[in-house]
Amino acid sequence: QSALTQPASVSGSPGQSITISCTGTSSDVGGYNYVSWYQQHPGKAPKLMIYEVSNRPSGVPDRFSGSKSGNTASLTISGLQAEDEADYYCSSYTSSSTHVVFGGGTKLTVL
Amino acid sequence: EVQLVESGGGLVKPGGSLRLSCAASGFTFSNAWMSWVRQAPGKGLEWVGRIKSKTDGGTTDYAAPVKGRFTISRDDSKNTLYLQMNSLKTEDTAVYYCTTEGDGYNHDYWGQGTLVTVSS
């Protein structure tokens, strides 16, 4: 069982917006602004999409945005495109002995 | 261009040992915090551990499932990160990724991964 809770799957049509949630506790998501999001296509390595809750690395489209409220972080993808179909993972720093925790992952299907 | 290239994966019996390497290029390796993240077949990501830069103490942190069995080290003269895995268990079967770790505990860059299979 993952420390952070994500929905197993979400879907949307091209051009639409979707939001993936990531729920933790005050020891991780709620306590620190160290939430990051990763995109993983099948058979490929993950790619950093969002760091420190809402910052985009260079090269990541501004269709991807991140936010946080309380113990829940969110990744929003607007203007869905076919190439956005992938697995998405959230991660957070945690004050527990594990130091870093990941969510279980969310499979995004673009209909 | 940042490149991380893992090697050393393979098939090993339970209780056995294996050492993974990660050759880094395209950035100042000695200044970087480095991590290992693994992914069991069909499963999610799991942080394994990290090593800080020598200027930040060079200390290591490990996830509970591997603490005492795995050791992370670095050779800054060779721009190489290592993961020594001992007393391997079947549940250690996974693709192991080498990553850089940014200021916000995020994993900026990832290697292509190397598969470790623990089976009799």
Question: Could you explain the architecture of this structure?
Answer:
The complex is a heterodimer of chains A (111) and B (120). With 111 residues, chain A is mainly beta. Chain A has strands spanning 9-12, 18-23, 35-40, 47-50, 64-69, 72-77, 86-93, 100-102, 106-110. In chain A, the strands form two sheets. In chain A, strands 1, 3, 4, 7, 8 and 9 form a six-stranded mixed β-sheet that branches. In chain A, strands 2-6-5 form a three-stranded antiparallel β-sheet, with no helix packed on it. In chain A, β5 and β6 form a beta hairpin. The radius of gyration of chain A is 13 Å and the shape is globular. Chain B is mostly beta strands and 120 residues long. Chain B has no helices and eleven strands. In chain B, the strands form two sheets. In chain B, strands 2, 4, 5, 6, 9, 10 and 11 form a seven-stranded mixed β-sheet that branches. Chain B has a four-stranded antiparallel β-sheet with strand order 1-3-8-7, with no helix packed on it. Chain B is globular and about 40 Å long.
Using brief descriptors, characterize the structure shown.
heterodimer, A: 111 residues, mainly beta, six-stranded mixed beta sheet, three-stranded antiparallel beta sheet, 9 strands, 0% helix, 43% strand, globular, B: 120 residues, four-stranded antiparallel beta sheet, 11 strands, 52% strand
Instruction: List the uncertain runs of chain A.
Output: none
- Decide which structural class fits the backbone of chain B: mainly beta
Beta strand count of chain A:
9
Largest interface: A-B, 25 and 22 residues
Query: How does the major sheet of chain A shape up?
Result: 6 strands, mixed
Fraction of residues in H or I helices of chain A: under 10%
Question: What share of residues of chain B is helical?
Answer: under 10%
Series of H and E elements of chain B: EEEEEEEEEEE
Mean pLDDT of chain A, to the nearest integer, reads 95
| N- and C-termini, Cα separation of chain A | 29 Å
| Extended strand count of chain B | 11
What profile does the largest beta sheet of chain B have?
7 strands, mixed
